[in-house]
Amino acid sequence: MENILNFNRDDLAGWLGSNGIRPFRAGQIFKWLYIRQADRFEQMTDLSKELRQKLEDHFYIERLVVEKKLVSIDGTEKFLHCLSDGQHIESVLLPEKDHFTLCVSSQVGCAQNCQFCLTAKGGFIRNLKPAEMISQIRDARYYLIQKEIDPTKLSNIVFMGMGEPLANYTNLVKALEVITDSDYGLKFSSRRVTVSTSGLVPKITQLGLDTDVNLAVSLNATTDEMRSRLMPINKKYPLSQLLEACRTFTMKPRKKITIEYILMKGVNDTKADALRLVTLLAPIKAKVNLIPFNEYDNSEFKRPSKDQISEFLQILLDRDLTGMTRKSKGEDILAACGQLKAKLY
Ligand code: SAH
User: Fold this and answer.
1) Closest Cα partner for 176 from 8, 3, 5?
2) Substitution site in 90, 103, 106, 117 for ligand 1 pocket (most atoms within 8 Å of beta carbon)
3) At what angle do helices 239-247 and 271-281 cross, to 10 degrees?
4) Atom of ligand 1 nearest to the CA of 299
5) What is the Cα–Cα distance from 273 to 218, expressed in whole angstroms?
6) Is 337 designated active site?
7) What is the pLDDT of residues 255-310, one digit of tens each?
8) pTM (2 decimals)?
């Protein structure tokens, strides 16, 4: 038995074909799964009884169990999902002015070991299957329906939850195919789907070739010395290689790469850092997202003062970089960037 949500439309068409069923039925089945939110094959009333039975015999449709839901005072909601093997992941639903953004996890835990990130502290457990990424989105939509909110209001997806998405590349791309399948899938516009990476250089290039989604890179430092200290991945792929991959990233005209930069007091928040950042990003079509460090119990890093943050931003803006400070959401429920840990420890 296989979870049907692990199949993209080509996979399903292939399976149908080899079982003597016309492959176009894959679209019909996808519509039921992703547009009509079906949970059971028997709901798929425009398929023959025989086909429904065949599907029933080979597949199941899995919903993740939402074990716990936390609501922040700012409206951010964090879901703790229990996976079929008992592991846990988190996703975060962020209300914006006229839509919702869902922050999705790609792995149980994370192997990147970034020094400032709480997720890293629990180590790496395993990759998520395509279905487990897709289900976070199906569950969020289902949740909105229950609250009588139009589920299409959930229009933006960011792979900025637990894990390093590009370290789970094959499954990620399969999930992205369903997420952006505009005929029968989840129908997200690829302009509204963003994959964030700590800097796996070869996979960055590959993502540009394989998909149309937006790229975000967690830069966080302006020298190799500091970046290697904060993010061990930098020893493998130093700044020069990372920035070159950004410069040559395949994307539509007018698109920009989001450069995420956590501001940590006394670590990477000086005027010299801001000026170096401007120089480093000069050849790249980029917009900078400054993330004031989100503190947690025993975190060794601290958030700079409001004034320091706005001074840093001003240096970028004065030199014609596009940039903004990202508003932290859900800090009171540990749902902000770098605070997701599920039940890792
Ligand atoms: N592994 C991917 C996806 C995770 S995104 C990546 O690194 O991009 C999570 C984002 O939160 C990253 O930009 C990371 O740099 C940032 N982050 C991690 N810990 C943080 C913290 N304590 N405060 C603010 N941002 C943090």
Assistant:
1) 8
2) 117
3) 50
4) 22
5) 15
6) yes
7) 999 999 999 999 999 999 999 999 999 999 999 999 999 998 888 999 999 999 99
8) 0.96
